[in-house]
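Field reference: sequence -> structure
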Amino acid sequence: MSQQYDVGSQKASGESEESKKQQQEALEEQRRLMLKQILTPEASERLANIKLVKPEKARMLEDSLIRSAQYGRIGKVDEEQLKQFLSQFNEMTDKKTKVTISRRKAFDDDEDDF
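Structure field:
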């Protein structure tokens, strides 16, 4: 009897995974449609090129564009506006690298201590 329960839970688990997958695909489709409405074909092509090189950065940029459009801050975005938006985005997200060099003193060797 417990075997029947296991099979049933596997079916339910498979169905929920499939429904999650369908929901995720629907969200991605909505996302594509929104970006198609926001971006001109040239800007869309540039964003696709960025996505090939840095997918995580492109995703964050897409999220920002969608949010801005939802709040009415931007209208149709052409390639030049996308470049400006990208440069502002890069300034906000770039991490500054700091290198610190610490040198040992010549007579402070731990190996000589016995």
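Note: The helical segments are 2-38, 41-53, 55-70, 79-93.
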